[in-house]
Design a protein that fits this description.
The complex is a heterodimer of chains A (307) and B (500). By secondary structure, chain A is mainly α. Chain A has twelve helices and two strands, in the order H-H-H-H-H-E-E-H-H-H-H-H-H-H. Chain A has a two-stranded antiparallel sheet. Helices cover 70% and strands 2% of the residues of chain B. The two termini of chain B are 30 Å apart. The chains are: A mainly alpha (307), B mainly alpha (500).
C-alpha cells in the first residue's frame, strides 16, 4: 500500500509536468496544425535558464532572496526566456513556411529541435546540471509536508503540482474568458474565416507560441527541481508530452491535462512495479492503442474531412 | 541524372516543334508540364551548355560517377580516404532509401534509422560466431533486406488510419522502441539475445564465391568493400529508378501531391503508403548488412537520432524526389562532416564558404569590396585595440594551426583564457545577428553584415573549433532549416508547382 501511495505521488508530479508540455503542443497544433518537434527542446532550454537564474541569485545553498521568491523568480525567468525563444522559432522557422506543403514545416521543426539541442551542448557542454533543491532552506522542501499512512508527501511535490495546476487554470481562463482566447478558438476552428472576420491571425499564432513555450519553460524548472537536467532531456520529454496531448485529444486543454496525468501514472507505476527500463515501451503501447481505436483522443472530436 | 520527366520537358522546350505534337505524358498535368516554359532557360553559352547537359542520358551520368568513385583508390593510397569513400557510399544508399519514403511518397518517416539497425542486427544474428548460424552472404543479405521491409510494413500498419503528422510520431516512437529494445536486449525474458549495450561481436566478414574478404588488407582498409558497396549502390539506384518510372512510382508521387485526390481517383492509398515504407526500410536494412559486415560488430549506439538527422539533411539539401540530388546531398554532407572533424580543415572551409557565399550573393561589385574590406579593417582595429588594452585578450592560440590559423590569430581576438560567459553571449549574439540580417534590406543589411561577419569569425575560432562534435550537428540543423526556407526543392529537386 505504501508503495502504491508513493507511486501515485510520483505519478502526479511527473504527470503535471507532462501536462504542461502537452498543453504547448496542443495550443500550437490546435491553431497551426503543426507538430512542433522543437517543443521538447524549448522545455530543455527552460530548465537551463532556470539553472542560470538560480546561479545568478546565489545558488541554492546561499540564495540572496527567500526560498519562495527564489522559486518564483527562476520560474518566471524560464517562462520569459522560453516565450522569447518560442516567438523567434515561430518567426524565423515556421512563418516562412505557412503555406508550404504539410511536410515542409515538419522538417524545419526537426531542424530547429536539432539545432537547439546541439547549440546548448556547444555552449554549455553535456554535463548534468543539478538545482540542488535539497539545500534550499536546509532541506525544508523535503522534510516538511504531510503524511499519508507511512508515506511523507514532501513540500516540493506539493508546490510543483499546485503551481502546475495554477498555470493550467490561468491558461484555461485566458482561452475561455478573454478576447484573445476567443480569437484563438476562432482561428483554431477556421483560420481563413477568422482572418476574414478581422482577426490578426499572425498575432494569434505568436500568442499561442508565447503561451505554449512559457508553459514549457515552467515545466522545465519543475522537472529540474526534482532531478538533474542535461541537454538531452528534450527529446523524450517532447515525445511524451506529445503522446499526452494525443491521448487527451489534441487541441483540447482539459484533454492535455488528463493525458499528462495518465501518462505520469502509467510511467510511475511501470517504473515501480515492473522495471524502469520498459516504461517508455508502455507509453508507446498506450499511444498506439489510442491511435488505432480512438485517434481523436479522450476529449477530442473526430476529424471530418469535407472535400 | 535529372528526373526523366523534367529532362524530357526541357528537351521539348529546346525543340518547340516536338512539344506541339507530343503533349504531356500519362500521369502528368498539362499546366504543370508547361510551367517550365514559363520560367525560361538561361541565356548565353551557359544556356547552351545547360541544354546540352540535359540531353545526356541518366545512365551515362551513373557510369561516369561510378567510374570516378571506382578510380578513387587508385589515386589515393591512404586507408582513410578509402574508408571515407566507403562511408559516403553507405550514406548515398541510405539517402536513396529515404528518398523513396520522403521524396516520392511524401511521408515523414522518423524511424528510418531503426530499419537500418534492423538490417544490421539481422545480418549479425545470421552470421556472428555467437549464434553459430553462419549463413552464406547470398542468403543472409537478402534475408536481412526482406526482414527490414517486413518490419517496415508492420510499423506502417497502424499508420493506415493516420494522416501526416501522426505517422511521424508513430515512426519516431518506433525508433525509440528500437533503441530501448536493442539497449536492453540482454535482459529480454531472462535471455541474452543481442548483448544489450555491448552489441554483437565477431560477425563474419563478407565472403564472395567461397573467398572471405578480410576487413583490412596489408594493414589498410580493404578496397574490395568499397567496390561491393558501389555495386549495391548501382543495383539499388537502377532498381529504384525503374520503380519510380513504373505505375507504382507514379502512384507514389500522386500520393505526395494530394493523397485525398489520389484516393478519390481510386488509388489504394494505404497500400501505396505501406509499399513506399517497405521499400525505404528494405534499402536501409540492406545498407545495414554491409556496414555490419565491414565493422564485424553491431552496437545500439550506432543508430542514434543524429544519424537520422544526417540522412534527412542529405535528402533535403540534395532535393527530395531527385535521385541524383540525394546522391549529391549525401556526398556533400558526408564530406562536410569529415572536414568539420579537423580544426585546420574546417577553418579553411569556413573562410572559403564565407567569401564564396558573399561573392555569390553580392556578385563582383563594389558592395562586395566594401563588405570584405570593412570586415578586414574592423578585425584589425578590434584586434589592435584589444591587444593594447590587455595583452591576455589576444594571447590565445587558434586551434588547428596552419598558415591560415596564424593569419586568423593576427586578426581575430582569441583570448588566452576564455571567460565562461563569453561563449553563450557571443554565440547567441551571432544567431540573433544572422536572424536580424534576414529581416533588413539594402544599406542597413550591408552595414550589419560587417560586424556579423567578424562576430561569426570570433565564434568560429573561439567556440566552434574548440568543440567539433556539437558544431557538426549544429551546422546540420542550420542547413536543414535554411534549405527548407530558402530553397525547399534542394539543389537538384523539382520545384513544386501549385495548382490553385
Amino acid at each position: 500500500m505504501d508503495t502504491f501511495i508513493q507511486l501515485t505521488i510520483n505519478g502526479f508530479t511527473l504527470g503535471s509536468v507532462y501536462a504542461l508540455i502537452a498543453l504547448g503542443y496542443s495550443l500550437v497544433y490546435g491553431i497551426l496544425k503543426l507538430l512542433n518537434f522543437a517543443h521538447g527542446d524549448v522545455f530543455m532550454v527552460g530548465s537551463f535558464i532556470g539553472f542560470g537564474a538560480l546561479q545568478l541569485l546565489g545558488g541554492s545553498t546561499d540564495p540572496k532572496v527567500p526560498t519562495w521568491l527564489l522559486l518564483v523568480l527562476i520560474t518566471l525567468a524560464a517562462m520569459a526566456g522560453c516565450a522569447l525563444l518560442g516567438v523567434a522559432i515561430e518567426r524565423f522557422a515556421y512563418r516562412p513556411l505557412r503555406n508550404a506543403p504539410r511536410i515542409a514545416p515538419l522538417i524545419s521543426a526537426l531542424g530547429v529541435s536539432f539545432f537547439l539541442a546541439y547549440s546548448m551542448q556547444l555552449m554549455f557542454g553535456s554535463e548534468q546540471r543539478d538545482y540542488d533543491a535539497f539545500s534550499l532552506s536546509g532541506g525544508a522542501l523535503f522534510f516538511n509536508g504531510f503524511t499519508i499512512g507511512n508515506v511523507r508527501v514532501p513540500l516540493l511535490r506539493i508546490v510543483i503540482v499546485a503551481s502546475a495546476f495554477a498555470l493550467m487554470i490561468v491558461l484555461w481562463l485566458l482561452v475561455t474568458r478573454t478576447r484573445m482566447g476567443k480569437a484563438m478558438r476562432a482561428t483554431s476552428h477556421d483560420r481563413e474565416a477568422a482572418s476574414m472576420m478581422g482577426i490578426d491571425v499572425d498575432r494569434v499564432i505568436v500568442f499561442a507560441f508565447v503561451l505554449g513555450s512559457a508553459l514549457a519553460g515552467a515545466a522545465g524548472v519543475m522537472f529540474a527541481l526534482r532531478a538533474p537536467t542535461d541537454v538531452a532531456i528534450g527529446f523524450l520529454a517532447g515525445l511524451k508530452g506529445f503522446t499526452a496531448a494525443v491521448i487527451g485529444g489534441i487541441g483540447s486543454i482539459p484533454g492535455a491535462m488528463a493525458g499528462g496525468l495518465i501518462l505520469g501514472f502509467a510511467e510511475a507505476f511501470t517504473q515501480g512495479y515492473i522495471s524502469t527500463r520498459w516504461s517508455d515501451l508502455l507509453v508507446f503501447v498506450i499511444l498506439i492503442f489510442f491511435m488505432l481505436f480512438r485517434p481523436q483522443g479522450m476529449f477530442g472530436k473526430p476529424e471530418i474531412k469535407k472535400v | 541524372m535529372d528526373d526523366n520527366e523534367t529532362r524530357r520537358e526541357r528537351i521539348e522546350e529546346a525543340v518547340p516543334a516536338a512539344s506541339a505534337t507530343a503533349g504531356p505524358r500519362i500521369g502528368q498535368d498539362e499546366w504543370v508540364a508547361r510551367s517550365a516554359e514559363h520560367r525560361g532557360g538561361r541565356g548565353g553559352w551557359m544556356g547552351v551548355l545547360e541544354a546540352r547537359l540535359q540531353t545526356v542520358p541518366w545512365w551515362a551520368w551513373l557510369i561516369l560517377f561510378v567510374a570516378v568513385v571506382a578510380a578513387l583508390p587508385v589515386g589515393f593510397e591512404s586507408g582513410y580516404v578509402r574508408r571515407v569513400a566507403f562511408d559516403t557510399v553507405i550514406f548515398m544508399l541510405l539517402a536513396l532509401g529515404l528518398n523513396v519514403v520522403v521524396g516520392w511518397g511524401g511521408l515523414l518517416d522518423l524511424g528510418y534509422v531503426a530499419f537500418y539497425g534492423v538490417g544490421a542486427y539481422t545480418y549479425a544474428i545470421l552470421s556472428a560466431d555467437r549464434y553459430d548460424l553462419h549463413l552464406p552472404v547470398f542468403v543472409s543479405i537478402p534475408v536481412a533486406a526482406v526482414v527490414g521491409g517486413l518490419v517496415g510494413l508492420l510499423v506502417g500498419l497502424p499508420s493506415r488510419r493516420l494522416v501526416g503528422d501522426y505517422l511521424a510520431i508513430v515512426t519516431l516512437f518506433f525508433f525509440q522502441i528500437f533503441l530501448t529494445v536493442s539497449n536492453n536486449s540482454e535482459s529480454i525474458l531472462g535471455d541474452d539475445l543481442a548483448g544489450g549495450p555491448n552489441g554483437i561481436l565477431n560477425v563474419q566478414p563478407l565472403s564472395l564465391f567461397g573467398r572471405e574478404l578480410p576487413v583490412s588488407h596489408e594493414g589498410i582498409f580493404n578496397v574490395a568493400y568499397l567496390y561491393v558497396a558501389l555495386a549495391f549502390f548501382v543495383v539499388v539506384f537502377v532498381a529504384l529508378r525503374f520503380a519510380n518510372a513504373s505505375r507504382t512510382g507514379r502512384a507514389w508521387r500522386s500520393l505526395r501531391e494530394d493523397s485525398l485526390a489520389a484516393e478519390l481517383m481510386g488509388m489504394p492509398v494505404n497500400w501505396l503508403k505501406l509499399t513506399a515504407f517497405a521499400f525505404g526500410a528494405g534499402v536501409a536494412a540492406l545498407t545495414g548488412t554491409l556496414v555490419t559486415a565491414l565493422n564485424g560488430s553491431v552496437f545500439p549506439q550506432t543508430f542514434e537520432f543524429p544519424l537520422l538527422i544526417t540522412v534527412y539533411t542529405m535528402v533535403i539539401l540534395g532535393g527530395a524526389g531527385s535521385q541524383a540530388g540525394v546522391v549529391i546531398g549525401a556526398i556533400g554532407i558526408s564530406v562536410l562532416l569529415e572536414v568539420l572533424r579537423e580544426p585546420g580543415d574546417s577553418r579553411f572551409l569556413f573562410y572559403a564558404l564565407v567569401v564564396l557565399g558573399l561573392a555569390g550573393t553580392l556578385r563582383f561589385s563594389r558592395r562586395l569590396a566594401v563588405v570584405l574590406g570593412g570586415t578586414l579593417l574592423l578585425g584589425f582595429v578590434v584586434h589592435t585595440l584589444a591587444d593594447a588594452i590587455d595583452g591576455s585578450w589576444t594571447a590565445g592560440a587558434a586551434s588547428g594551426g596552419g598558415r591560415l590559423g596564424e593569419w586568423a590569430n593576427e586578426w581575430v581576438v582569441v583570448p588566452g583564457d576564455l571567460a565562461g560567459w563569453i561563449t553563450p553571449v557571443s554565440y547567441i549574439g551571432l544567431v540573433a545577428a544572422v536572424l536580424t540580417l534576414t529581416l533588413v534590406r539594402g544599406r542597413t543589411r550591408l552595414a550589419l553584415l560587417v560586424p556579423t561577419l567578424y562576430l561569426a569569425a570570433f565564434v568560429w575560432e573561439n567556440v566552434m573549433l574548440a568543440r567539433p562534435e556539437p558544431t557538426r550537428f549544429v551546422v546540420l540543423g542550420a542547413i536543414l532549416i535554411a534549405v527548407m526556407i530558402a530553397r525547399p526543392e534542394g539543389v537538384l529537386g523539382e520545384k513544386r508547382v501549385e495548382i490553385v
